[in-house]
Amino acid sequence: MAALFMRVPQVVAHIYVFLPFAQTLVLNYILGEDDELRLPFRLLGVSYAFLGVDYLFIILCAHLSTEFKMLTKDLILIKPTKMADYGATCIVYDNRPIRNFVKMHQVYIRLASDMNDATNNIMFVNLLCATITLSFFGLAVLATSNMMDKLVNLVVVVTVMLLTLIQCYYCEKLKTASEEIFCAACENPWYEGNLEYQNIIHLIMVRSQKPCYIKSLHSPITLRTFTKVMSTTWSYFSLMNTVYQNNE
Question: 84 φ, ψ to 5°?
Fold first, then answer.
């Protein structure tokens, strides 16, 4: 389903870029009207530059959240294993599976931190551009008198909203997946293990209480971020619409 949604911005980018050219051909060669030739092909490269960054970000978030989900399943299946039982004198446990889990958990936490460092400023610019784009294209829907232009601008508004929602959704999934390791640690039969096993489980529970976030500057990106973007967009749109109506 997500793959289908990610195809929509590509289609819209092509429509928005090539529709003026098709409109010019129809007006000049079919209807016989004199109209200027419109060739906005350079916008296609700009569109794909933004879409490429967005798609890469979504894919990385999706893969990382999947890895955390797999870690959660692994932790539920890990159980304390006795290597040797000498009765009341000594019981030897094999704690290698839980140690390997801790190593993988550290690797994924480090990957999430590196991804946040790499995309922190980019996501701020991305969300800011989404807010400005939604505001101006929303105003264009009201300002233009051409129904075809209204439809195209409206489709662009819906597409940018959808793309922003998908980004925030996968950031939320990453946060939730990293938190679910705490629940898996609670379900683990840690009470059957030795003291080392119990201490490791305790450390896993403490660390997983701090979820992995992808941030926009200092603010974590979640589904609440999407509502903030929409709220800010509406404020900008209302302001520009008021100024536009006053100048008419």
Answer: -150, 140
Rounded distance between C-alpha atoms, residue 152 and residue 140, angstroms? 10
pTM: 0.79
Contact call for residues 141 and 150 (beta carbons, < 8 A):
yes
216 forms beta bridges with 219
How far apart are alpha carbons 56 and 48 in whole angstroms?
12
Question: Which of 49, 52, 225, 237 has its CA nearest to residue 132?
Answer: 237
Contact at 8 Å (CB) between 216 and 226?
no
Please give the backbone phi and psi of residue 158, each rounded to the nearest 5 degrees, phi first. -65, -40
pLDDT digits (tens, 9 = 90+) for 11-52: 555 555 555 556 566 655 666 555 555 555 445 545 656 677
- Sign of dihedral through CA atoms 105, 109, 110, 114? positive
Instruction: Indicate if the alpha-carbon torsion angle 172, 177, 183, 187 is positive or negative.
Output: positive
3-state secondary structure (DSSP) of residue 216: strand
Phi first, then psi, for residue 217 (nearest 5°) are 60, -110
193 neighbors 93 (Cβ within 8 angstroms): yes
Residue type, 57: F
Can you tell me whether residue 112 is helix, strand or coil? helix
CB distance 175 to 212 below 8 Å: yes
CA distances (Å), origin 32, targets 27, 37, 91, 149: 6, 13, 93, 21
- Could you tell me which of 188, 175, 169 has the C-alpha nearest to residue 73? 188
